[in-house]
Design brief:
Helices cover 28% and strands 27% of the residues. It contains nine helices and 15 strands. The strands form three sheets. Strands 3, 5, 6, 7, 14 and 15 form a six-stranded mixed beta sheet that branches. A six-stranded parallel beta sheet has the order 10-9-8-11-12-13, with helices on both faces. It has a three-stranded antiparallel beta sheet with strand order 2-1-4, with no helix packed on it. Helix 3 crosses helix 4 and helix 3 packs across helix 8. The mean pLDDT is 94.
Length: 297
């Protein structure tokens, strides 16, 4: 089978599409014929060799955590899923023709493989940071870097819970944020004053790592009500860095519920082939994403 892997840490050029042995499902796992794989910032952070305790790896390593596809192997002790089922979930080395998943759910009706591949880590992260920042119905949440995958999920989940959301993004994504129920404003010079004009902020999320933690603490007046998933310097500002995932099965179940109720939709901005994985990483790292990027197998 074909698989994207890297033998040394570095830039996108270390990614190679190689022939590899097919993986097999162990106890409590399933194997899928991959149809699409989600491209997440954690993928290129791992490729660069950033210290991410939740994802220790050994080289050479495959790439990718999220995928959708068709079950073709069921491991020992697994119940409730059969060969031929269409599923999405989380595993390892998902930039490949076959991948083993450790958490999964059946795909909701009407969802394409490309769309489904973009949900697992994004929804888990969104649910986790909303919980960790402690924002409640009736409060206002500021989301810095709101137009990407996690931001898109946060905006919709928060609005479903009765939370007002202010989102920052580039000028081209203002209408997109508004379509998800957010009060939108641009980043750049004067953004703090623009946010203040929109009202009081109870809690804030840094999803882009764009060096705004000091300002987020200033706006909330409480570092404990700010969470970052993208700035490793967060502790220097008294801010928590959230990098350890919670329960993926629970997140997938919540994703299925939200999607089925029409409360969550994350568009796929661009699709790539496995051979185009370096380009997908370059685009993901550049930011300014509207929704998700995925690899199509």
């Amino acid at each position: 089978m074909k698989k994207v892997s890297f033998a040394e840490f570095g830039g996108p050029d270390v990614l190679q599409l190689l022939d590899a042995e097919e993986p097999h499902a162990g106890p409590g796992q399933i194997r899928i014929a991959v149809r699409a794989a989600g491209v997440n910032p954690v993928d290129w952070r791992i490729r660069e060799g950033q210290v991410l305790g939740a994802h220790p790896i050994e080289l050479p390593s495959g790439v990718g955590l999220d995928a959708s596809g068709v079950v073709d192997e069921v491991g020992e002790g697994v119940e409730g899923v059969e060969v031929g089922d269409r599923v999405f979930g989380e595993g390892s080395s998902t930039y490949a023709e076959f991948a083993v998943l450790s958490a999964w759910a059946r795909m909701p009706e009407g969802l394409t493989f490309e769309e489904a591949a973009g949900y697992p880590s994004v929804v888990e992260t969104a649910l986790r940071v909303i919980r960790e920042v402690g924002v409640q119905s009736g409060e206002t949440l500021l989301v810095s870097g709101a137009s990407g995958g996690v931001g898109s999920a946060v905006l919709q989940i928060a609005r479903d819970r009765g939370i007002k959301v202010i989102g920052t993004a580039g000028a081209a994504n203002q209408d997109y944020l508004r379509s998800l129920g957010a009060v939108a404003t641009t980043y750049g010079d004067g953004w703090v004053e623009r946010v203040r004009e929109l009202g009081h902020v109870d809690a804030a999320l840094d999803l882009a790592g764009s060096g705004v933690l000091r300002e987020l603490v200033e706006l909330t007046r409480d570092a404990q009500r700010v969470i970052s998933i993208a700035d490793l310097k967060a502790p220097e500002f008294g801010v928590r860095f959230s990098g350890v995932a919670g329960s993926m099965p629970e997140a997938l179940a919540e994703a299925v519920s939200l999607i089925s109720r029409g409360k969550l939709h994350i568009p796929v901005e661009k699709s790539y082939t496995l051979a185009e994985a370096p380009a997908a990483h370059i685009d993901s790292q550049a930011g300014h994403t509207r929704g998700r990027r995925v690899l199509v197998v």
